[in-house]
Amino acid sequence: MLLPRWLLSDRAGLVMLAVLVILGVGVPILNLWVPPDHPLHVTSYTVALLGKYLCYALLAVSIDLVWGYMGILSLGHAAFFALGGYCCGMYLMRQIGTRGVYGHPDLPDFMVFLNWEALPWYWFGFDQFWFAALMVLAVPGLLAFVFGWFAFRSRVSGVYLSIITQALTYALMLAFFRNEMGFGGNNGLTDFKDVLGFSLQSDSTRVVLFVLSALALAGGYLACRWLVSTRMGRVLVAIRDSEDRARFLGYRVERVKALVFTFSAMLAGVAGALYVPQVGIINPGEFAPLNSIEAVIWVAVGGRGTLVGPVVGAVLVNYSKTWLTTALPEVWLFALGGLFVAVTLLLPYGLIGLLRRRRESAS
Amino acid sequence: MSELISELDAAGMHAPAGPVDATHGILLYLEEVSVSFDGFKAIDNLSLYIGDGELRCIIGPNGAGKTTMMDIITGKTKPDTGRVFFGQTIDLLKLDEPAIARIGIGRKFQKPTVIEPLTALENLELAMSGARRLRGLLSTRLTGEERDRIAAVLERVGLSEQAQRPAGVLAHGQKQWLEIGMLLMQEPRLLLVDEPVAGMTPAEMERTAELLKSLAGSHSVVVVEHDMGFVRSIADRVTVLHQGRVLAEGRLEELQAHPKVIEVYLGGEDARH
Ligand SMILES: Nc1ncnc2c1ncn2[C@@H]1O[C@H](COP(=O)(O)OP(=O)(O)O)[C@@H](O)[C@H]1O
Ligand SMILES: [Mg+2]
Fold it and tell me: Looking at the 3D structure of chain A, how many domains does it have?
């Protein structure tokens, strides 16, 4: 096969990518071309749900890159996800045009409601798809870079770093709750109509968004897998296991951390941007500190430092969540907490670690 | 010598100007260096010169400031006062840890510090000078020349057979050698080696002594060590550190007859442990 060596040796990753290909091809067929009364038909609801899981999986991969390989436990990655989501949401808001309740050609409904006369400067450009797409990378990336530059240069690490990432996402949540910020306050951005002229209500658009999510996950995964297989990957592990050793070998640890953290935030931003059109809303609740913690739990459950594990963890935990929050809503948080404790105590390498152990003891 | 350094300082020539200039036969200068932690003087007006190609042992009781001295040379701790020069032109106090590592000062930590999940070979690859540029960092394979360099160092530290094993499963002594190998990959001029034989078997100690002796000449080597037998087997020049300052310096035999040294260190050798 024509695969590079770094990918060939990644068995679990290849299996995961194969599953993504099967889903990416199968789900559209089963949704669009298999009639609704057929038992194999996949409903549009399920398509959107699966798409959402794939976005969560990409967020989990981005967290694993910094946590699993570089040892930075970010408890604020949902902030980058949400920022990517807001950038996409702003584009979708501008696409509504005169179809809003107030029919204003430029201003989103919530601004008309606030008696604003004109669009704030930071909303300019978001009517252009390319600009919004660029911002999906640039906004989370820039925030992560500035944050990382200062935090890592002052050698903040460990628990302290985790706490300030929580503070970061909390501060953003409070800011986005304010109406004066111009992001729709409490209600956030919603009532989207279409993207690039395609209706968000149509099945084919939803299928395309699902396929794009699968592609983004595959691309993000491959980028991370490649990165950790280069020498840079070994530098990351050195930073994780012995920061001083890396520094005294001549590596500028702060810069490496800031760069990789920025890259990771951009991946999270892409995940958020694909998530928003599929769920149809973005609001400040996405910045909630608990969201970031949940995402870290997906990574821990699937297996930290494996890149594949987080994908498995994100899908399984969210599937359970979907199921539990309908069946027994009050149990969910306890289940999540219990799961985290159990995994930490019993499965230090998560579900993937369990599989590996099985294989090793079998061979 | 101290005037020379002040002159350079006044002329503002303290930027890392090109290669190390050890034309006066001295590679490392520490002059009147002091540092205190919360009022406690860990290093107290310490002056020390290491010759080019010299193998120097530093001994002294626990808490004498040996590790702190290495922290100062490698940029981990900034002294309150004093001058630290690498050769005649490079002011180490103006550089941070990675910069100091890059100009050719390698450091082995007191506790063996290798990257356990990586193989011995990958550890050496990590340490390779020249791998630090972004383009080199983003490659997934080694060039033939790099492979040869790594093989040569593996051979030198006696780990050729262990190349593909994770560093975490190596024996304690092998980890120490691997870390010394990592320093060699950096192609340093000066090696600072903190307690290399702590916890080693006599046979491992002997090999370590051979290794360090073979490095002297082409490198300057500063070894901090507690074990008198080991010190005797490698160095002819020994510096005794006590309460952050140089208590005595000379051949080990002379020092062993030195009354003050006997009092603070050699006499208490049994009591230390
Ligand atoms: N970062 C630090 N903060 C406070 N005290 C320190 C620090 N580093 C070293 N010391 C103190 O300085 C003294 C010298 O320590 P050290 O250099 O480790 O001694 P040695 O290596 O000779 O055993 C000790 O008393 C130690 O407690
Ligand atoms: Mg010490």
Answer: 1
Structure tokens at A6: 């770094």
Dihedral angle computed from the Cα positions of residues B238, B241, B247 and B252, in that order, rounded to the nearest 10 degrees: -20
Q: Is B167 on the interface with A (CB under 8 A)?
A: no
The class (CATH top level) of B53-75+104-272 is alpha beta
Ligand closest to B42 (CA) is 1
What does the H/E/C string look like for A188-203? CEECCCEECCEECCCH
Q: Which atom of ligand 1 is nearest to the CA of B69?
A: 17
User: Is the CB of A229 inside 8 Å of chain B's CB atoms?
Assistant: yes
Whether A201 has a pLDDT exceeding 60, the answer reads yes
Pick from B74, B138, B140: CB nearest A248: B74
Q: Which residue has the tokens 């096969």?
A: A1
Q: How confident is the model at residue A359 (pLDDT cuts 50, 70, 90)?
A: confident
Distance of alpha carbon B9 from alpha carbon B84, whole angstroms? 11
Quote the pTM value.
0.91
Distance CA B129, CA A51 (A): 45
- The DSSP result for B50-102, as a single string, is EETT-EEEEE--TTSSHHHHHHHHTTSS--SEEEEEETTTEEGGGS-HHHHHH
Burial B127-139 (b: 16+ CB within 10 A, else e): bbbebbeeeebee
- Order of strands, sheet of B40-51, starting from the edge strand that comes earlier in the sequence: B40-51, B26-37, B81-86, B90-91
Count Cβ atoms below 10 Å from residue A181 Cβ, excluding itself: 14
Q: Which atom of ligand 1 is nearest to the CA of B241?
A: 22
Rounded Cα distance between A119 and A106, Å, is: 7
* Residue A61, domain extent: 5-362
Please list the rounded mean pLDDT of every run of 10 residues in chain B (273 residues).
33 47 89 94 94 93 92 96 95 94 93 94 88 73 89 95 96 94 94 92 93 93 89 89 92 85 64 43
Tens digits of residue pLDDT in A224-262 = 999 999 999 999 999 999 999 999 999 999 999 999 999
Phi, psi of A314 (to 5 degrees): -60, -45
Amino acid letter for position B69 = M
Contact between A232 and B140 using a beta-carbon 8 Å cutoff = no
